[in-house]
Specification:
2 helices, five-stranded mixed β-sheet, about 100 residues
Length: about 100
């Protein structure tokens, strides 16, 4: 993937609630983001939600949004709230936050 041309990228912040911590959700999200060629990050929040921030071409971002609604097999996703954000031109990888 060419990370230099981000003119058609979109960036999304997702807040995922339900049983999404201690079930492999972060690693699962990381794998899907990598597979889709997205950049961003994923982290557990103190309130029990998971925050996933990702950017890329619209088709891949939309596919990731659908994946986040499903979650890994042990998760129970109750709600996902999406926010659009400004694309980060200098972001070149997807990394989990620990």
């Amino acid at each position: 993937m060419n990370y230099d041309d981000k003119s058609n990228y979109i960036r999304v912040r997702a807040l995922v609630s339900g049983r999404v911590q201690h079930v492999g959700y972060r690693y699962w999200a990381f794998e899907h983001a990598e597979r889709l060629g997205l950049t961003g990050s994923v982290e557990n929040l103190p309130d029990g939600r998971v925050e996933v921030v990702f950017q890329g071409v619209p088709e891949c971002v939309n596919e990731m949004k659908e994946k986040l609604r499903q979650g890994p097999s042990m998760a129970v996703v109750k709600q996902v709230i999406f926010y659009r954000e400004r694309v980060k031109q200098d972001e070149t990888y997807f990394g989990p936050v620990y």
